[in-house]
UniProtKB/TrEMBL annotation:
Key words, A-Z: ATP-binding, Nucleotide-binding, Transport
Lineage start: Bacteria, Pseudomonadati, Verrucomicrobiota, Opitutia, Opitutales
PANTHER family for this protein: METAL TRANSPORT SYSTEM ATP-BINDING PROTEIN TM_0124-RELATED (PTHR42734)
The protein's name in its UniProt record: ABC transporter
The keyword Membrane is assigned to this record: no
Database matches in Pfam families: ABC_tran
SMART domains registered for this protein in UniProt: AAA (SM00382)
GO molecular function, one term: ATP hydrolysis activity
InterPro entries: AAA+_ATPase, ABC_transporter-like_ATP-bd, ABC_transporter-like_CS, Metal_Ion_Import_ABC, P-loop_NTPase
Length: 264
């Protein structure tokens, strides 16, 4: 689905991404994990065509950046990011926000068909947000906004869905509920491949089969979660002696001194 080869991004003297090799195959869900400033956002921007590479290649669904219409390719990528939240009209009902995802536009002005409305309602139901259809954006809680944004991204039937730190700002219960939703989504028929960007191992639910670990713009490890999510590799990622434990509650990271790591 996605093939990133020898990707370098440099601006002036600053090396932002260096020699990134990353391949996402159908049926895989990836987490991108890295400390602040490790290059996660830059990589996402490169994937969506907003950060032209200095060197290397990005191939998405058989089309290659630079040699085909990248805007058409980008339509296959859905993205849920908090940077949208300030761009949505405050009085827009959630249903319209979802429908606008079909047209990759932020302010819905087009006449909407009954079929589009029905599809948007179905997606709101899928994210447990059916009750939000008529509610204005300005009144939605952070957790509700994230769910509406997922439904919005799904409206365009993306092949790849990027969740960029979707749990930032969620309370612990809302976070657990949101992660359950992501897991459910991953198992739904014709689900897009998921890419979760996070600093927190607790957010890596069983749906995520693979991990890409970044540090200072370079790949520390990429591959199956069992091989990449290890104490040794995560110590490299966070430049600290950390221990990864696996329990009934999922993954947990702590400093070797037993203090829980707070990354942000
Ligand atoms: N256009 C640019 N010019 C110069 N430096 C840049 C540019 N864009 C990003 N950087 C730098 O590249 C590094 C990686 O930034 P990026 O935002 O990708 O990190 P990140 O992993 O997403 O961080 P965070 O977790 O804090 O969001 C940072 O040091 C940043 O200042």
């Amino acid at each position: 689905m996605l093939n990133v080869t020898d990707l370098h991004i440099r601006r002036g003297h600053t090396v932002i991404l260096k020699q990134i090799d990353w391949r996402v195959n159908r049926g895989e869900n990836w987490v991108i994990l890295g400390a602040n400033g490790s290059g996660k956002t830059s990589l996402l921007r490169a994937l969506t065509g907003y950060f032209p590479p200095t060197r290397g290649e990005i191939e998405l669904l058989g089309g290659q950046y630079g040699s085909c219409d990248w805007r058409a390719l980008r339509e296959h990528i859905g993205i849920v990011t908090s940077s949208f939240t300030s761009l949505i009209a405050v009085a827009e009902p959630a249903l319209d926000t979802v429908i606008s995802g079909k047209f990759a536009q932020l302010d819905l002005w087009k006449k909407v068909t009954a079929a589009e409305k029905a599809a948007a309602r179905k997606l709101l139901d899928l994210v447990d947000g059916g009750y939000l259809a008529e509610r204005e954006w300005q009144y939605l809680s952070q957790g509700e906004r994230q769910r509406v944004l997922i439904a919005r991204a799904l409206m365009a039937r993306p092949r790849l869905l990027i969740l960029d730190e979707p749990c930032a700002g969620l309370d612990p219960v809302a976070r657990v509920e949101f992660l359950k939703l992501v897991d459910r989504l991953a198992r739904s028929p014709r689900a897009p491949a998921l890419v979760l960007v996070t600093h927190h191992v607790e957010e890596i639910t069983p749906a995520f089969t693979h991990a890409l670990l970044l540090r200072k713009g370079e790949v520390v490890a990429a591959g199956l979660r069992a091989k990449t999510l290890t104490s040794q590799k995560l110590s490299q990622v966070f430049a600290a002696d950390v221990r990864l434990s696996r329990g009934a509650q999922g993954l947990r990271l702590s400093l070797a001194s037993q203090q829980t790591v707070v990354c942000r």
